Amino acid sequence: MAFARTCSVALLGVDGVVVEVQADLEPGVAAFTLVGLPDKALSEARDRVRAAISNSGERWPQRKLTVGLSPASVPKSGSGFDLAVACAVLAAAERLPPPAIADLLIIGELGLDGRVRPVRGVLPSVLAAADAGYRQVVVAEQTAAEAALVPGVSVLGVRSLRQLIALLTDEPVPDEPPDAVAGAPDPLMSGLMLPGTAVRRTTADSEYGPDLGDVAGQEEARRALEIAAAGAHHLYLKGPPGAGKTMLAERLPGLLPPLTRAEALEVTAVHSVAGLLPPGRPLIDLPPYCAPHHSTTMPAIIGGGSGLPRPGAVSLSHRGVLFLDEAPEFPVRVLDALRQPLESGEVIIARSAGSLRLPANFLLCLAANPCPCGRHSRRGEGCDCTPTMVSRYQARLSGPLLDRVDLRVQVDPVTRTELLGRERSAERTRVVAERVRAARERAAARLTGTPWRTNAQVPGRELRTRWRPAEGSLAEAEREMERGLLTARGLDRVLRVAWTVADLAGHDAPGAVEVRTALALRRGFPGGVRSLGGESGGRL
């Protein structure tokens, strides 16, 4: 009997579990048995591994072969175990020294010709390996840069099984030509691209992407955008078609500060599992921007799919912006499913194969027309919709969902003077982003020693006790609550926005003016931000 073992990783959402790959050879009729809860793709590894070993110039052992994946109770999926299985088989057949692979963690798919192909989820897999104490990892050459993001781990990128065998046996390493499609997106790595889903791209002339200076007029909406970015507050833009709602939302990620190293690893891990890492960019260090189409299904938004769930749009926008354009056109079930991740910053998906916890700490931006035809206004001019149609359309955004949205802004049509006038140029993204950065630094300094970094994360109890505004500042908010126009959750969110307004203005604490500004943004009535902003003596 011959026995050998090595290790690989099984992914459960964005969390990795180290799996021991054991190979056992015994006398008997030649057979290959794979055990340990493999899925269909992993079960097919038997044929891929046999062909890869034979086409790499090695002999396939003509004995009874059993490959076990331990722990056997953990579901295992995908083709990333191929290379580890092949090495374990060769070590059991004494072609490789068993000690040489015992302390290695090996991840990679094998082609029938022995080429090593990249797989999804390399970064979270290597993070799990590092946490388990592994310091040497073997991956496909195309994903070596991604694996090297994990500190303290030595990464070996190989192009083929032949190269790995030579390295492990101290033989001359064959010079394998690079993969012919190495520079092109791998269809196996691309996954199902959600409509409009993408990591925010930078342009050649600006590190911030689409510039806020391109937006004509919309002073109130621009200020609300700045407040949303400074405090990580959710935002609802309501207005007729062509008013600039989508333009504003597309410029929101540019106002957010770059991700910290820890945040960048979180975001990159999610996109790695989804197979959506941009080519040649192993680390995502900018806040992602995700804008799914309103026809997108529940699993694509929340996460899910057959077998073990995969990240949805709420996880792909983790630490960034999730923009739902034409929000009332989304299925009501999908919109209401956002309520839980908006509160907790994560989404829990239960399936027959298991339950997964995926990160979903995003900034939500909703955009909607006032009615089906889009021309409904306070004056009622030009709208063909009946009052019932308008009411039914607006009711598609439920009260519990909107109660979790801090800022509600009426986006009116741009006037001819604002669109064509040249006497005043709008502030550019770089200028506003600097104010956002300063406000976030003020909040972070105040929250030092706590687990929170932005005002939107602070629990309501702390806001009402530890960081309560000056006496009398909440009088108007308390009256709103007594009249039933403000919920307890709404009061907490008003306090959070008031602190953000104070941080942007450079004040040590919010006063009555900041609270009234937050209330105006909560109500969403036109003119509220501009009129209240002038009373504070500053921009906001």
How would you describe the overall organization of this protein?
By secondary structure, this protein is α/β, with parallel strands linked by helices. It folds into two domains: 2-189, Ribosomal Protein S5, domain 2, CATH 3.30.230; 197-412, P-loop containing nucleotide triphosphate hydrolases (Rossmann fold), CATH 3.40.50. 36% of the residues lie in helices and 16% in strands. It has 24 helices and 19 strands. It has a six-stranded mixed β-sheet with strand order 10-12-15-18-11-19. Strands 1-2-4-3 form a four-stranded mixed β-sheet. α2 crosses α3. The N and C termini lie far apart (77 Å).
Note the total helix count.
24
Radius of gyration: 28 Å
Roughly what percent helix?
Answer: 25-40%
Instruction: Briefly note the structural class of the backbone.
Output: alpha/beta
**Beta-strand level of the residues, as a percent range?**
15-25%
Report the average pLDDT across residues: 87
Name of the top-level CATH class of the largest domain: Alpha Beta
Strands of the largest sheet, in order across it? 10-12-15-18-11-19
Task: Give the secondary structure arrangement, pairings included.
Elements lengths: L1 E11 L2 E12 L4 E5 L4 H4 L1 H11 L8 E7 L11 H11 L5 H5 L2 E2 L2 E2 L5 E2 L4 H10 L4 E5 L3 H4 L6 E5 L2 H8 L18 H4 L6 E2 L20 H13 L3 E4 L6 H6 L10 H14 L14 E2 L7 H5 E2 L5 E2 L1 H4 L4 E4 L7 H5 L2 H6 L1 E6 L2 E6 L3 E6 L18 H8 L4 H4 L4 E4 L5 H5 L8 H18 L13 H6 L9 H8 L5 H18 L6 H12 L4 H8 L5
Parallel strand pairs: 3-4, 5-8, 8-9, 11-18, 11-19, 12-15, 15-18
Antiparallel strand pairs: 1-2, 2-4, 6-7, 10-12, 13-14, 16-17
Helix pairs in contact: 2-3, 9-19, 9-22, 19-22, 22-23, 23-24
